[in-house]
Fold:
Amino acid sequence: MTGEKTFYDLVKFAGYDLIIIEGKAHRPSHVHIDREGVSFLDAEDLIGLDPRQLQQRLKEKHGPQTESICVGIAGEKLVRYAAITSGERTVSRGGMGMVMGSKNLKAVSINVPIRKQTPFDKTKFDHLVKHQISILRDHPRRKNMNNIGTPYLTAVMGELGILPSKNFQEGSIQNIDEISGDAFYKLKKSKAGCYQCMTRCGVCVMLRKDL
Structure:
């Protein structure tokens, strides 16, 4: 499996390398990109929706292939550690959701036909891709990331004192073994990964609390 296409993949397929949004809207707004171009739309009807509800609403509004980045209620209320959500992934560090909220920007969505991307020098590009794959295929770290997932790095970073904790004020935590790679591996149900990534370091777990 190669992973599902995300908002970021579709932006690239649409021909955009970078999107910069400056200033602040006078009222809650959302930006939508489609084959007609870029539209700035009212988002009053989206206020109060959490990211899952919002992304579903945008698919209903713009088409089932629509992907988006958005903020939930925390971003609207300018909570300093609010995240930006896209699918099941988040931009969780640094309060980026608050930045979107401060612009009165509820979401950026995209629904465009997939355009084939052709490298400038396809022969050289293909050679480099094959070379990279040959290096990664048997690399111990990639194997651990593929098998255990990103929690594999938790204990290592804790030992080095560079595990971000308390909003980067400290570099380690107590009882780190409770969130280690081994702990998550016991709960692992399946893998997940980014589009076209061979490592697939995402870990899907199922937690159940009996009441």
Strands lie at 29-34, 37-42, 67-70, 84-86, 89-91, 105-111, 188-192, 202-205. The helical segments are 7-13, 51-62, 73-76, 96-102, 122-137, 140-148, 152-160, 181-187.
